[in-house]
Amino acid sequence: MPRYEAWQATCDTLHAHTQVLGKLAATLAPPEPQLQHAALRLTPRGWETQPLPAPDGSGALVTALDLHDHDVVVEHSDGRSRRVALSPDRAVAEVTREALAAGGDLAGSVQINPTPQETPWTTALDEDYEHVTYNRAQVAEYFAAATQAALVLGALRSPYRGRATPVNAWWGTFDLAIGLFSGRPVDPPSNDFIWRNAGTAQMIEIGWWPGDHRYPRAAFFAFAFPPPDGFERASVSPAGARWDAELGEFLFDWDDVCRSADPRGAAIEFGLSMIRHACVVCGWDPELAASADGERPPVT
Fold first, then answer.
1. Cross-strand partners of 206
2. Exposure string (b/e) for 153-188, b if CB count within 10 Å is 16 or more?
3. What's the CA gap between 122 and 115, in Å, rounded?
4. Cα(67)–Cα(283) distance, integer angstroms
């Protein structure tokens, strides 16, 4: 995985396209935050939304970034579909407008909030002619790394004994992450969006990013929300994992993962060490971290 600066133009363009998908999900899905409806999924073909209600009531829509054929794909539940090509020198504005028009052709028009989120730029997505670079080789490299990271996160989630989110990303970013929840309510309760999705329970998040303007390297990360006192003081494993005070997160660089004798094992150990740490410092029930000792939850 190259450093973020080395492929920032491609990274930013792909980032913008994922925001369009997520904003469609947030606009069309029912207002039930417990469903985490704004999340995107990484699937074998690329990024895609959950099935969404069609604006005209005719069925359901799925919108995807096909990172094999390099298209935005809009599919209706009746079998119709439209494709918008992703190619070098196609501006984000053009792709955004064509993708929205494709959805309108299939199931009625929809208006999204075009304001970018979690980015250093402010130009509306449907007016963005600055981000045009789409390097297919770099996209393929990103997709291969993201798929490996998603498999690691899925392995951390599957045996966890508490409540866990799917491996997903929100519309502001194409970071991958899972949220693990203690079941203990936050006191006092909050209307914060994250807490609403957590059922006002404390959480830790473990994820992977390809690098961004804040931290220009691909890495696994972990943080607690809200962070308890002493969360930053941990003996995290394996070697190379560390606390980043500026970001307020634990990090394990992708380069260090790839240099390990067992990259998958090293990445999983990072996640498991964070689960162990959270159960101690956050005061969670140790049974929630049974997966850290290799115990699978009972089948009920």
1. 178, 222
2. bebbbeebbbebbebbbbbbbbbbbbbbbbeeebee
3. 7
4. 42
Q: At CA 204, angle to CA 202 and CA 209, rounded to 5?
A: 145
What is the token pair recorded at 107?
């199931």
Tell me the sheet residues that pair with 243. 250
- C-alpha span between 60 and 52 (Å, rounded): 5
**Distance separating alpha carbons of residues 167 and 24, to the nearest angstrom:** 19
Q: CA nearest 116: which of 13, 30, 221?
A: 13
**Helices vs strands, H then E, count in the chain:** 6, 12
d(CA 48, CA 60): 14
d(CA 250, CA 205) in angstroms, rounded, equals 10
| Element housing 197 (H / E) | helix 193-197
The answer to whether residues 228 and 237 touch, using CB atoms and an 8 Å cutoff, is no
Contact 236, 250 (CB under 8 A): yes
Separation CA 169–CA 166 (nearest Å)? 9
The separation between CA 145 and the C-alpha centre of its own chain, rounded to angstroms, equals 13
pLDDT in tens, the chain (300 residues): 567 777 788 888 988 998 898 888 878 876 654 444 456 888 999 999 889 899 999 999 999 999 999 999 999 999 999 999 999 889 999 999 999 999 999 999 888 999 998 788 899 999 999 999 999 999 999 899 999 999 999 999 887 877 788 888 765 667 899 988 876 665 555 555 444 455 556 788 999 998 888 888 999 999 988 788 888 988 889 999 999 999 999 999 999 999 999 999 999 999 999 988 888 887 787 777 776 666 665 544
Question: How far is the C-alpha of 220 from the C-alpha of 229, rounded, in Å?
Answer: 22
